[in-house]
Amino acid sequence: MEKPMALILQGGGALGAFEYGVVTALVEEGWSPRAVTGVSIGAVNAAAIAGAKDGDIAASLHRIWQAITLPAAPLLPAAVQANLSLLGNPNFWRSRTDYWNAPNWNSWCTTAPMLKTLAAHLDFEQLNDPAHMRFGVTATSLHTGGQTTFSNYTAREAHLKTDRHRAVRAQLTPSHIVASGSLPPGFPATRIDGCDYWDGGLFSNTPIDSLLNLLEPEEIESLPIFVVDLFPTDGQPSPANLQEVQTRAIALQYENRFWAEYGGSGGLHGFLAMLEKLEAATAGSDVTAMPAFHWLMRLRALKNLHVIASSPAAAGGDHDFSAGGVQERYQAGRAAARQYVARMSQRPALRAA
């Protein structure tokens, strides 16, 4: 029997192979996505899920990752293979060669190959059908400095516009997916409808708001929401060299922050308890017609979070698209998902695996 779920997929470059493993294992365990949102490589994975040809999510993820994984080079040490993508990834990005124009460069690479890869491997007609699956990706607007969510659906009572977040229902194309992962200075901004966008992870690498706008009111109470955490940062020793310093700095920039956003010293459980009391205390009053009240009530869905965390990323792991590196993270994701699901009946939500 299929078990409905929602998915939130973070960005993290090659670390996204862990998400590939997690989602494959969840689908094999009978979980079926009703809504999925992602950022950067998480947007690519989310698109592979919503746009899976013939509805085969595992096969779709496999095709995308097979396309962007570099071929094995048995004669080269694993450490060397892990860094080969810095020279380019034929189906993902290509280094610029217009050296005569170097003074005007605003990126080191072009993402044109990924546009072709997405168009070739995904069913965008299906991806744009919310009756099949609700889908959204986030990007950072260079014009507002805030987050924009592009989605195939907006739920009733969704929160569509604030000073720093805009939700846009759109006919999604490969450009929307690439915009979500346009991380500078490696990748150029992606222009959509006259506006330039960078990687959505620069604003928020855990796009919970985007997912909440896809949920119908009746799903807020009970739909399980799986978050894949690619950047756990607690309990680690101090960096011992410059490469470890860079790896840790990236992890701190993109780590989960929703634990700190709600509840203050009361934590997320305290925040959720407050929402329940607020709903009871305001029943039948004028405040329940206010958009801010509807958004607060939508945040009750946070009680349904299940966080599956990876192990801390190895130095340089975010650009390791080698066959060995991708396979290792894929298998780690599968194992983490299976372990989490096996313990779900004994473990409450709101905790990492």
Largest sheet: 9 strands, mixed
Q: Quote the beta fraction.
A: 15-25%
Rounded to an integer, what's the Rg over CA atoms? 20 Å
> Given the helix and strand composition, which structural class is it?
alpha/beta
Number of helices: 13
Outline the low-pLDDT stretches. Answer: none
Helix content: 25-40%
Instruction: Give the CA-CA distance, first to last residue.
Output: 24 Å
Shape: globular
What string gives the helices and strands in order? EHEHHHEEHHEEEHEEHEHHHHEH
Mean pLDDT: 91
Q: Give the number of DSSP strands.
A: 11
Domain PNPLA: 7-212
Motif (GXSXG): 38-42
InterPro entries: Acyl_Trfase/lysoPLipase, NTE, PNPLA_dom
Keywords: Hydrolase, Lipid degradation, Lipid metabolism
What does the model show?
The protein has 353 residues and is α/β, with parallel strands linked by helices. Helices cover 36% and strands 16% of the residues. The chain is built from 13 helices and eleven strands. The strands form two sheets. Strands 1, 2, 5, 6, 7, 8, 9, 10 and 11 form a nine-stranded mixed sheet that branches. Strands 3-4 form a two-stranded antiparallel sheet. Strand 1, helix 1 and strand 2 form a beta-alpha-beta unit. Helix 5 crosses helix 7. The radius of gyration is 20 Å and the shape is globular.
Distinctive features:
single chain, 353 residues, alpha/beta, nine-stranded mixed beta sheet, two-stranded antiparallel sheet, 13 helices, 16% strand, lipid degradation, hydrolase
